[in-house]
Amino acid sequence: MTRLRRCVLVGGSGAVGGMFARLLGERGAVVEVVDPLRNGDITNIDDALADQLRAADMVLLAVPEPVALAAIGAVAEAMTPDALLVDTLSVKSRVVAAAPAGVQMVSLNPMFAPALGMAGRPVAAVVVHDGPLVRELLRLIEQWGGRVVLTDADEHDRLTGAAQALTHAAVLGFGVALRDMDVDVGQLAAIAPPPHTTMLALLARIASGTPEVYWDVQAANPHAATARKALAEGIRAVADIVERGDEAAFAGLLTSLGGALGPQLDRHRELCAGLFAGLASGTTSYSDRMPPPTVLQ
Questions:
Q1: Exposure of 66 in the CB half-sphere (CA atoms within 13 A)
Q2: What pLDDT is recorded for position 287?
Q3: 162 and 129, same domain (yes or no)
Q4: Model-level pTM?
Q5: Range of the structural domain that residue 132 is part of
């Protein structure tokens, strides 16, 4: 039984909030879900909602950044001093700057889609105001199989600028180029080597996702613009080397990029080999693309 016995999850009907609601419920906590569209406006706390917040051992804000920033002061004021305040925003610098004193607080960012499950996956954690319930929640995350990665707010946003904004922009740029090249994706998928198949899979995942999630990654992170600029400059650098026919410079580029990976080079090369080994060889066979045989009468 966790010491987080009564938890209020604001936005608990969403994917991230729902994941925490389920996990906490399985540990015996009483979970009360506050959904701004159904049963409570966290930016305008009425008496009933104030009573819920006052009785909670933990309040988790799994809401968009503007809502969280507008609500965080009043929420903390309604909570008891020994309770825990948590948010799950993907950008930390602004929410940490707005964090009120008087309650324990930790700012989490699960670095995965909740549908994948927490086991084996990283959860970035910025400890804002430490205390026993902060440590209790971090222990629970580890017991659920998550990997807690402690960082501060500025470092979190700089890292996620590379891990999320840069990565998503690269996949989206690949998609724009692919669309504008006007090739048949079915034929392309039939001949695609593993790196291209992987890129198609990433593009399909993002294109099928919730636009607001990917918009927030690009628009909210203060380091996203730097990441996109670096990506554009990197593509231009590769093009410049190739267009001037400098094969030696190209080889030097690969060497320098391998060096940038440092001691992670071998690990990630082996990871890539494992990923590629698990890919299907193609979506169609040669015979699938041939016309049916002519039957002689």
A1: 2
A2: 42
A3: no
A4: 0.86
A5: 6-151
